[in-house]
Write a structure and sequence with these properties.
Strand content of chain A: under 5%
Structural class of chain B: mainly alpha
Strand order of the largest sheet of chain B: 1-4
Shape of chain B: globular
Oligomer: heterodimer
Shape of chain A: globular
Distance between the termini of chain A: 16 Å
Strand content of chain B: under 5%
Number of domains of chain B: 1
Number of helices of chain B: 13
Helix content of chain B: over 70%
Structural class of chain A: mainly alpha
Chain lengths: ~350, ~325
């Protein structure tokens, strides 16, 4: 049993410290934390800057965007244990909504945002309702296929630009004197950070309430959850749709910053990278996922001076990391693993993803 | 939409589909074997296939075949083809075994979650693709024509080309050999026992590490054969060749019922034929969309695939 080895678990230590802190300390720590991230674009430290690419742009994409999407995917994969390999599809739907409506109608970013989120959610329901009845591994291949299909459809429909994509997407209107231009990624980063904080808040609220308990039950044992009266399909679809909404919002913002999109930006590698972020950081644990996403998005940019072999280095790092810490950098609390039979149940498991 | 083409060239398309399906079937055997034993999707399997194509290419170079040469004849040709086939199978087989050691073994022994193992396999897959992208400078490579491609005969307007006939027959022989191996040999029995119940198999004295190595080796050998047949028919390869073939082959495995050998064969042929038909009707661009829709439909109607799951049930 891995639990008995008594490995140092940063997550548990941090959680204990947090729980034992008085309220003023928690509040001030949170404020300092959030302020630090809002001030991050002004940080110019040789340790974290990115030679070969603009640090402020890297903060927005890929780092901030991957963090947001990893949090969204964590609802699906980490909380409810559903393996989604086509997560990029929802990101693409959000981005294409922004691109099409932005270039063809007079709607601005803030008006398109809810439409993009709604469309992603509708896609989530359409894909989720039939496929979430399936077992884990089939869900993986169906979502993987869906991710590719969205890209292929975008390539093949000339009305939305075909393989050339859509250019000239409008930037959002000014907000609180902040100008959104292609030259300055800072306002985009702040909007993205605000989105991310909202999503974190939403996920934490959800996790503590009925949906969170239902997701926990579904992840641990789908059949038992159903026997205990949890409407498993409903909560699975909900997890799927919430994940889709987060990616859709990310897509809308991304399209408005990058100004032109092509279908090949939304390939399978993005889905896999985001999944890697979730698992790398510590599946199911929000802070681990955020750390993992930040690291995985940031590292290839930081080692850009390696140019050619940087993705190779990234791949090797993934393998080494998973071999050394299979539960991720910041694993989830071991609290739920109290049952001595838990591991053996998993080993004989009938294919559901834990 | 071009239904006339489908109607006119029906038998020719069917034949092409069978040749493509044979390649899918050989690759999907690797997915299905590993799934049967480990209950995991081997994400690096498409790269095992990719390495097979490059090994065949290198072997042909060592044998002195050049792109601008005339095709070889007689025993010389047969010998060259066999060397390329063996090179591809060996390289893929060894790669598959190494993938297991690097990506799976340690995680399995630590009882890691499925997702952790999946990410580790994805890491190996990314590394291999990138390695070959750097080696080949992102350029596709042409495979020299070793064998003269002629039409053997015509049937109902379909020209039957010799290389595709060879692929279909040879793939059939490979699958037959694998079937014998799984149902009769000592390790084949071990594979079936482990896929039935890992713990009981261990208690009964099955060396689980050896069995898993043999499983990966068998899957790798089949992928290597598929790689050689692919490069023989399509005459080119690149570092990303594994990706779409891998997805299609995995779809084929799921279509037939993953973990089921006969299902993988059947799924491979069905998918190969359907993809060829649909690309004739809707154009090749929509091929992947149609096969995906077929997969979803099959899964909705019969979620365990056409043949149901698990190696042991199909064999008893």
């Amino acid at each position: 049993m891995a639990d008995k080895k008594n490995r140092y678990n940063i997550r548990d230590h941090a959680a204990t410290y947090w729980e034992n802190s008085p309220k003023w300390r928690r509040v001030s720590m949170s404020i300092a934390f959030i302020a630090f991230f809002y001030a991050l674009p002004f940080l110019n430290n040789p340790l974290v800057n990115t030679p070969g690419s603009d640090f402020q742009s890297v903060l927005f994409y890929p780092v901030g965007m991957y963090v947001l999407m990893a949090i969204g995917l964590n609802i699906v994969v980490g909380k409810s244990g559903l393996l989604d390999l086509g997560y990029v599809a929802f990101f693409a739907i959000g981005a294409y909504t922004m691109a099409i409506l932005g270039t063809h109608t007079a709607l601005n970013f803030w008006e398109i945002l809810p439409i993009g989120i709604a469309l992603s959610m509708v896609a989530g329901v359409l894909l989720g309702t039939p496929t979430l009845r399936l077992r884990g591994d089939y869900l993986a291949i169906v979502t993987l296929g869906f991710g590719e299909i969205v890209r292929i459809v975008a390539v093949n429909i000339e009305a939305i630009g075909g393989p050339r994509g859509i250019a000239g997407i409008p930037t959002p209107p000014d907000l609180f004197k902040a100008k959104f231009t292609i030259l300055d990624p800072k306002p985009y980063y702040w909007v993205l950070l605000t989105f991310t904080l909202l999503v974190i808040w939403m996920v934490r609220r959800m996790a503590a309430r009925r949906p969170g308990r239902a997701w926990d039950a579904i992840r641990q044992d789908d059949d038992v959850a159903q026997l205990m009266g949890v409407n498993t399909l409903k909560y699975k679809v909900w997890a799927f749709v919430l994940g889709a909404a987060v990616a859709g919002a990310g897509g809308v913002l991304y399209a408005s910053q990058i100004l032109s999109i092509v279908p090949d930006q939304f390939n399978l590698n993005v889905s896999i990278l985001i999944l890697a972020c979730v698992v790398f950081g510590g599946i199911g644990n929000l802070w681990g996922v955020i750390l993992g996403a930040a690291l995985l998005a940031f590292t290839p940019e930081r080692i850009r001076f390696l140019s050619q072999p940087r993705i190779l280095v990234f791949g090797i790092a993934l393998v080494v990391m998973m071999n050394l810490r299979p539960d991720g950098i910041l694993p989830k609390k071991k609290r739920e693993h109290f049952d001595p039979n838990w591991k053996s149940v998993e080993e004989s498991g009938e294919g559901e993803i834990k | 939409m071009d239904f006339a083409l489908l109607h006119d060239a029906f038998w020719g398309l069917t034949f092409d589909g069978l040749a493509l399906g044979a390649i899918y079937a050989l690759i999907s055997l690797g997915y299905t074997l590993v799934y049967g034993v480990l209950r995991l999707i081997n994400f690096a399997h498409s790269e095992v296939f990719m390495i097979g194509t490059f090994s065949a290419l290198v072997a042909s170079g060592i044998m002195g075949v050049k792109v601008e040469d005339d095709p070889r004849t007689g025993w010389n040709m047969i010998f060259t083809l066999l060397i390329c086939l063996v090179a591809a199978m060996l390289a893929s087989g060894i790669t598959a075994v190494l993938v297991e050691i690097v990506a799976y073994r340690r995680l399995r022994q630590r009882g890691a979650t499925k997702l952790a193992t999946l990410i580790s396999a994805i890491g190996v897959s990314i590394s291999l693709v990138e390695l070959f992208r750097i080696i080949t400078d992102s350029l596709p490579r042409e495979f020299p024509r070793i064998m003269d491609k002629t039409f053997l005969f015509s049937y109902a307007g379909a020209d039957i080309r010799n290389d595709k006939v060879i692929v279909i027959i040879a793939a059939g022989l490979m699958m037959f050999a694998l079937e014998r191996f799984i149902s009769k040999s000592r390790y084949g029995k071990g594979i079936r026992a482990v896929s039935m119940d890992e713990n009981t198999a261990t208690l009964m004295g099955v060396n689980i590490n050896k069995v898993i190595t043999v499983t990966f080796l068998a899957g790798g050998l089949m992928a290597g054969a598929a790689a050689f047949f692919y490069i023989l028919v399509y005459e080119n390869t690149s570092f990303k060749v594994g990706f779409f073939l891998g997805i299609s082959a995995f779809t084929a495995a799921v279509l037939g019922g993953i973990g089921n050998l006969k299902g993988a064969l059947f799924g491979g042929f069905v998918l190969g034929i359907l993809e060829t038909y649909t690309s004739a009707v809707f154009g090749t661009a929509w091929k992947a969309v149609i096969s995906f829709l077929i997969l979803v439909l099959v899964l909705l109607i019969k979620p365990t695939g056409l043949f149901g799951e698990s190696i042991q049930q199909a064999r008893v």
